[in-house]
Structure formats: structure tokens, C-alpha cells
Amino acid sequence: MRILLVNDDGIFAPGIQKLYEAIQGLGEITVVAPDGERSAVSHALTLDKPLPAREVDTGIFKGIALNGTPADCVKLALNEVMSEAPDLVLSGINLGCNTGLNVIYSGTVGGAAEAVFNGIPAVAFSLDTYTNPNWEPVLPFVHDLVKTVIEKGIPKGVLLNINIPNVKAAEDIKDVMITEQGMAHWQENFDKRIDPKGRTYYWMTGKKREKKEAETIDDTAIKNNYISVTPVQFNLTAYDKLEYIKELGLNYKK
Fold first, then answer.
1. What is the DSSP-derived secondary structure letter of residue 10?
2. Calpha distance 224→244 (Å, rounded)
3. In contact, 83 and 118? CB cutoff 8 Å
4. Buried (b) or exposed (e) across 191-208, using 16+ Cβ within 10 A?
5. Which backbone phi and psi does 83 adopt, to 5 degrees?
6. In whole angstroms, what is the distance from residue 13 CA to residue 194 CA?
7. CA 212 – CA 95 distance, rounded (Å)
8. How far apart, in Å, do the first and last CA atoms of the chain sit?
9. How is residue 217 annotated by DSSP?
10. What is the predicted pLDDT for the residue at 215?
11. Which position among 3, 5, 150, 187 has the lowest Cβ density within 10 Å, counted as fewest Cβ atoms?
């Protein structure tokens, strides 16, 4: 079993180190990850500049640090780093949840999506906190989930988007819930500033705009201390709207 690890917080982030530790014994592990944080880059690829890469030793594992996006990392691993394609790609463990519309922006999900685009099963992991993460309750679940995925597989064209509540102890997690992606999103604010040369620049800030959604929605589940498991696919066609669009009578007149 060949397993590729990637993330968007950077190769020295504690989350990817904890992910590496959690899956010990499940396969041959390769790590290719950004050399620094690449949050919210979605599925972006680097096309307009070189991609410097270097071998690093984090003290937990040795891997390739790439000056690129998570999707770049997966592409490089598939084409240059690994002699054979991985059987599974794992992305994370991200600091901060990737739920609701954040799924579209997420570099963590983007790395997993790049694997799926290449026919490789993938799982994205996120922990619902930006501060004081408690990794220990997470790791046994991560190990067991990856073991189950190895044994039973994932439907083709689908990744599993896993969001885990940040709790004090394992017993605080109620259970695993299979969920749907919600519609919560960030409400952005722009902090206007002036640099030392008198030029205007902006710093984007904001907070998550919560919605009251069903218990089976990803955000609601983790608020209630469930681990959220959402199957995500990437055909964006609105099939239930095709007939309506056809009835608009669109045509090309020469």
C-alpha cells in the first residue's frame, strides 16, 4: 500500500506530522507538501513560475517541500517523486474546519481533489480549531478510518471530507455522522491600511456566517461534537435544472 501525504498548512505544520504518526503500519508513506502555508488556494496550479523543491527532515519524517500549491504537490508526486502511483492520498490534518462553502476554497480539499481527478482515492482531514489543537483524541479515529478505506475502498470519483471537533478527551466525541455539505460561508471585511510609502493596501479579515441547518449538515454535526464525514464529488452539472435551461429556447442564429 503506497500512501501519499499532502496538506495546505505546510510540510512543517503539526497536523501533517500527526497524520503521519496516525497511519504508521498501514503502508509505505511518501510526503510531498508545500514549503509554507497555502490555505484557501483551492485547486490552483502554478503555471507562471518554476517550482523549487527540496528534501527536508522534519524530525518526524523526511519529505519533499515544494514552493507550490497542494495540487502542485500531488501532480509532482505522481509524475516525478513516486516510481509508482499511490494507492491512496491523504490531505491534512488541517487547522480549521473545511465545511460549508469553505470546501470550494480549501487547499486541503484541493490536494485530495487532485488525487481523485487522477483516479486515486483520497481523504481530506480537518480539525475544527485554529488554536490549542488537541490531537490525541483524533489519531485513533484517523488510523481506523484509513485502515477501513484501505480494506473497503471509496467509490470512484469521490473523496471523503472529514471534519473533527476539537475536544478535551476522546469520550467527548459523540460518534461519526455521515453528513451533507452545508452552505455556511465567511463574511469578509477589508481592513484598509496605508504602507510606509503612502500606498493603499487591504488586509482581508472576516468571520464565518453561520446558518441554522439540519443535524446532518457538516457544520451542525461538528458543533454537536460528531465527526463529520462528507462524500464529495466534482461534477458540478445542475442536472435537475437541465430541462429548465433547455426550455429557455437558447439558439445560435447565423
1. -
2. 38
3. no
4. eeeeeeeeeeeeeeeeeb
5. -70, -25
6. 32
7. 23
8. 57
9. B
10. 86
11. 187
Which 3 state secondary structure label does DSSP give 194?
A: strand
Q: Judge contact between 100 and 15, C-beta under 8 A.
A: no
Give the pairing type, strands 200-209 and 185-194. Answer: antiparallel
What pLDDT shows up at residue 205? 81
Give the residue from 159, 163, 143, 162 showing the smallest Cα distance to 151: 143
Q: Are 194 and 121 in contact (CB under 8 A)?
A: no
pLDDT value, residue 187: 78
Reference 106, options 37, 170, 203; nearest CA is: 37
Domains annotated for the chain, with CATH where assigned, are 2-183+212-246 (3.40.1210.10)
189 pairs with which residues across the strands?
A: 205
Can you point out the beta strands (E) in the chain?
2-6, 28-34, 53-57, 62-66, 88-95, 122-128, 158-165, 175-178, 185-194, 200-209, 226-233
Residues in the chain predicted with pLDDT less than 70, given as ranges, are 209, 211
Give this prediction's pTM.
0.92
Please count the residues of the chain: 254
- State the cell numbers at 224: 454537536
- Among candidates 47, 58, 55, which has minimal Cα distance to 17? 58
In this prediction, residue 214 carries a pLDDT of: 85
C-alpha cell of residue 63: 519529505
- Residue type for 72, please? D
17: how many CB neighbours lie within 10 A of its CB?
20
* pLDDT of amino acid 206: 76
**Residue whose entry in the numeric block shows the C-alpha cell 466525541:** 173
Distance in angstroms (rounded) separating the CA atoms of residues 6 and 20: 10
